[in-house]
Amino acid sequence: MTRMPLRRRALLAGATLAAPALWPAAGRAQAIWPDRPIRLIVPFGAGGAIDTLSRTVSARFAEVTGGQTLVVENRAGAGGTIAGLAVARERPDGLTLMMADIGANAIGKELNPNLAYDPATSFTPIIHLVSLPAVLMAHPSVTATSIQQVIDQAKARPDGFTYSSAGNGNGSHLFMALFLKEAGIRMVHVPYRSGAEMVTALVRGDAQFGFPTVSSGIGQIRAGNAKALGIGTTAGTPLLPNTPAVSTVLPGFECAVWHGIVAPAGMDPALARRINEVFARIIAMPDVQQRIFETQAGVTVGGSPEDFANHIRREIARWTPIIREGGIRSE
């Protein structure tokens, strides 16, 4: 029997995160994918940011696939891991995809050691769709008007300030935990159940600080009910042009919500590339990019399956020590 060259075997393994053996039918499917409606599992409920993104993408799916549809299916619960487990158990035949989230598809096992699947090995990364910037916000009663002043005041008053989040282990919790670590300061964490609740709590004065996505906080910032002190991404955002990046004070600081498409582990790389091409065409459409920016302050990313796999690996490596050092566990 002729053995497959080592280089070829390495390439086949590269598109998944420690993927198991390939399903034999997957390679044949890629030539005609999609030949029927495709399910896109969304790990949170209808109406949220990730659901809005999913429906924006699905609305243009038929246009680039010869009329086939992308059916959005919301499976909320357990920080997205109910959806993650369901997709992890599917065949990697391209018929079931998932809108990826950092918890369900990257750090879920760190947040919940009893999770029934390992996000690092249970999926085939397909494409990194978007990056959604976050903003360090403060209640108007906070006298600090800059990131450095926040750090100085917090050092003078250890545990004297509180910050809200959208829940234990949520991105807004991790972003603030990273900020506190890099700045060498402490604040008291007050978790809520959603991004809307965390912002409302800050506006009421129940917490002094928060680190939500720009899209979650910009309404209250523009209304004067909260202050924007820093943007989590180095590039900043044109929606808040006078707000500096946190990295101007803490070099190397970077945080953003990200979403992309993943499939069950073990997908044939040729099929993964075919699916990648379809979604790359969708997010390259100017009106899709404009809608993502207008509704979520988001920036489209794209790239290859390998690029997205590498991004997920970096996220796992970056957030794991933050989670462990902070003893952070999901609710």
How would you characterize this protein structure?
With 331 residues, this protein is of the alpha/beta class. The chain has 2 domains: 188 residues, D-Maltodextrin-Binding Protein, domain 2 (3-Layer(aba) Sandwich); 114 residues, Periplasmic binding protein-like II (D-Maltodextrin-Binding Protein, domain 2, 3-Layer(aba) Sandwich). Helix content is 41%, strand content 17%. It is built from 13 helices and 11 strands. The strands form 2 sheets. The protein has a 6-stranded mixed β-sheet with strand order 2-1-3-10-4-11, sandwiched between helices. A 5-stranded mixed β-sheet has the order 7-6-8-5-9, with helices on both faces. Helix 8 links the parallel strand 6 and strand 7.
Task: Note the main attributes of this structure.
5-stranded mixed β-sheet; 331 residues; 13 helices; D-Maltodextrin-Binding Protein, domain 2; disordered N terminus; 2 domains
Topology diagram in text:
Elements: H1 6-14, H2 26-29, E1 38-42, H3 49-58, H4 61-64, E2 70-74, H5 81-88, E3 96-100, H6 102-111, E4 123-133, E5 135-138, H7 147-156, E6 162-165, H8 171-183, E7 188-191, H9 195-204, E8 209-210, H10 214-222, E9 227-231, E10 256-264, H11 269-283, H12 286-296, E11 299-300, H13 305-326
Parallel strand pairs: 1-2, 1-3, 6-7, 6-8
Antiparallel strand pairs: 3-10, 4-10, 4-11, 5-8, 5-9
Helix pairs in contact: 3-12, 5-6, 6-13, 8-13
